[in-house]
Fold this protein.
Amino acid sequence: MNLEEKALNFFALLEENYYIKRNLSNIQNSLSDNITWIGTGINEVCSSLSDAIEALTAEVKEYSGTFTISDSDVNYVALSEDLCYLFGSLIVTPISSEIAEENLRFSVILKDAGDEMKVEHVHFSHPDLLQDEHSYFTPKSRLDNHCNLQERVDSRRRQLELLTKNIPGGAHECKDDAGLTLISMSDGFLSLVGYSREEINTLFDNKFINLIYPEDRASVIAAIQKSICNGDDDSEIEYRIYHKSGKPIWILDKCRYIKTDHCSSFYCILIEITDRKQEQEDLRLSLERYQVVINQTTDIIFEWDVLSDTLSFSNNFYKKFGYIAISKDISQKLVMSDNIHNTDIQSLTTIMRQCLAGIPFTETELRLKNNKNEYIWCKIRATTQFNNYKQPIKVIGIIVDINDDKKQKEKLLNQAQHDPLTGIYNKIAINSIIDSCIKDNSNGVNQAMFILDIDFFKNINDTYGHLTGDRVLSEVARALKNSTRSSDYIGRIGGDEFVVFLPEVISENAAVKKAEKILEQLNQLRPFKNEMNLTASIGIAMTSSSDDSFVNLYENADKALYAQKNNGRNGYTLYNENFHKNSSIQAFNIKNYTDDNFAENHVVDFGLAQYCFRTLFNADSFDSVISDLLEIIGRSFDVSRTYIYETLEDNKHTSMIYEWCNDGIEPQVNKLQNFDYDEDLGGFRDNFDKDGLFKWSLKDETNNNLEEVLSYQDIKSMLHCAIMYKEIFLGGIGFDECIHDDREWAKTQISTFKLTANVISTFFIQDRLNKKVEKLLNKV
């Protein structure tokens, strides 16, 4: 092989190592110790081997990518037997779009060292692009313009680099090929994935497709191809890529497809969305759990969008009611809908106004119609959501079917309020109703109370037996119903005593006419074989502007009844301002009748105590029925609060354990815990009398500690009955009155309360003993 062939083969190998393979070690081995190297850069002048190696190392550090040689023209000139000169031109193109294509002129001096060739000198240069093709010089004006343009380009480039660095996430450019070969990567991109450029080149072969999580690669390629086919240069894709930590990260890829005459590539901005994806997954799971709960519950979820005035329901609404609910213009249409019971419209408008007024939580009970035209009792609980300005924007809530519970409670309350024999109100219920009617009579309309006593009823029982007596009582109750209006109230207050209350009557004369009608109805009854008719005595009392309380009205009617009995029975007597002048009992001692003899002249109502006994006796457990019983007792006595408290094991402290509160009364069960009888309540147990009763009202004096406790509960009066076991104070049952300052506990009420409390106490003690035995057995 001659020198020319050797030189040309060596130069071809040199081109391959330097541009295509970028093999620096082979290049360094080919350099002479006295090498001189002049490159295209301003400072790229080397006068020794060390200078050349340093320059090559810096060059590769700046750009480690490869080139393609698109044109090569090499000429040979022999200088001596072992020296030759090569010159010509090269066009090389880097794979990175960040590096410009090189249009080079070169000259190389090679020396034949026997078994190898050595490079003695290298010189690279660029043709002056500002110089005309047939000119030998560059015009100064053209150079100045070029410099100005270059400065502007450099400025824009720096701005672009700064913008790229400040973009959240990272940016990169990749080829439109199967591997999405990376052309350039920003520092933000490297920070995003955690790898260096060298690691990406080594570990992922400089291909972006290898960085993409395997399970997502197919969908990413499909999304890119679909976007290109649709002629859309811009696309957004979410997928996972590898991170150096070993965990994949979610990214949002905002990609633009650029196609030129020479090549096509993708310019991508990547934003990490791992946290957002996790939040979306958490939200998805939360919504899934929410949907599971909705599907499993019979309750109905609703959402009222206040701004659009629209209402949406869960599917349970249609399942429950059988029709599609109103969804638009709620504020206007809902209150006009016949799907809501007309007497409950006010409850609905109230809860809607409360939500719009900014009340965070509210609830109400109303009746909704189903597709069978039946009204179902429902409880509505609503929670208001607010915007940043504390303005209500949405109301979220549930609709709970309480129809069965409502009917059961009404049934239980009806049983507790009504006399089981006659079906009319019992004494406690009728007294409470009358008291409420009198107190609510703000317009001052005339009201009347009749107390009716069957004449010689004891003789009926003695002569015909108690079964006949019970039948007479039932027929009297039926006659009273037939003689009165549906708006009037009838009750049995004793063995053979009845009360009729007219909440609205025109005059005294109208009340008298009503009494005459009742007596006429009773006289028509023939309950006995000898056709003897039934007679009764009636005492009538009217309300007046100066004296309209239940106690006074009851006493006046009772006085009139007593007078009628003394005047021959079988008639009525009206209590009015001329009563004492005209009656035959002018010497009647009112104090003696209304004080100690009161309880003797009135029969205790055993119905409530009997009902409590039956309920507790048949119950599975004390806890399962006591809450309902407290409500029934509380409503029967018309008190604010009923509750049970027990003495703790140290025999010094007490805690409330059961409680029922009337409408609008604040519960205390969570507050009244672990109170010291002596230190906190001022020797509370000392207030009970020998019968185990403690009665208190505002006019009574008490110690400061107890007064403070009663004050913050807003108690006006109270009645307590002790729970005793072998002379040990185990706790008590209490009534609180928090509304009326003048509440008086009548002796019949106290007697009935004590009897009922004793029944509950017996079962309470048994329940506690059972639990202690069970606890001991568990220990054993």
In short: Residues 297-401 form a domain with the Beta-Lactamase fold (CATH 3.30.450.20). DSSP finds 25 helices and 27 strands in the chain. The radius of gyration is 51 Å.
